[in-house]
Every structure is written in C-alpha cells, then in structure tokens.
C-alpha cells in the first residue's frame, strides 16, 4: 500500500486496525504535523489550525486553496486537532509490524524531520526502512518538495520497486511454482 502525506496516515491506520493488513507500506512525505515539531513556524500552523473549526462551520468546508482545498470540514477538523494536540489518528506505539519504506523528501516544505519521526514511531524499528529523496537523486527539472516530486516520479518509483523486491522471499513452494512470495 502506497500513501503520500494523509494517505500514509491512512495506511498506518489500516495496518493497525484492519483484518486485511497490507503486505507492505510505502509512506511518502508522511508525518504527524504537531505544532511542537515546527519551531517558530508552529505559531502560524497553530493559527491556521485554530481557524479551521470556525471557518469550516461558517463556510461548510475549508476554502483555502493553498491547502489542497477546498477540503472537507470533518477532515480539516481532524487535521487541526492533530496539529494542536499532537495526537495522531493511529497509535504511535511501535506496534505496526508491516514492512515499511518511509520516504523523506529533502525539499519538503511541509514535513519536518521531527514530524516525520513522530509518524515513524507507529512502526516497530525492525519493520521500517528509510530513504531520503534529495537533490542527488532528483532528475533535471524535478524537485523534492512535498507535492512537486510527483511531477518526475521515476526515481522514487524505482526506489520503491527495489525496496519491494528486497522484501520478497523465495520459499520451497515458490521454487516449485516459479512464484515469489512476499511477507504478510
């Protein structure tokens, strides 16, 4: 299961609460965006989060286009609660055993290392691998920002494929049938 940003949070929630745990998770630009992870930028983040409930109550949704908007009122209220309280919508108790590749985006203007580490805390240390997509990996004309990386995704897709292949195991049944089995 691949998730970017909020989608990575969904992947963590599924891994913790579903009877159908994914075979693997790839989390790109994932975080628990609590104010405490943003230093002085946390002041502005707090102000935005504090405005979500009244604005979305009046307008019926979050209208700000700069935030991937308009965004659903309930989603934005949940986001604001997470920002202000630091409580993720999933347990950050190192309980996720699913093999996971966490991809950090070097130019990510939204996710700090502290916020990314808070997300990582949901995973057992032996289950999670990290890779930083930086300028050295980025093709000409591409970038490593929170959303911009997807315009030139080949390097990231190749790294995901390499990681996925490294998770494959070949057992006796696989040798006989010629198939590969993945953990999970």
TrEMBL record:
InterPro entries: AB_hydrolase_fold (IPR029058)
Highest taxon, organism lineage: Bacteria
SUPFAM superfamilies listed in its UniProt record: alpha/beta-Hydrolases (SSF53474)
Name this polypeptide is given: Uncharacterized protein
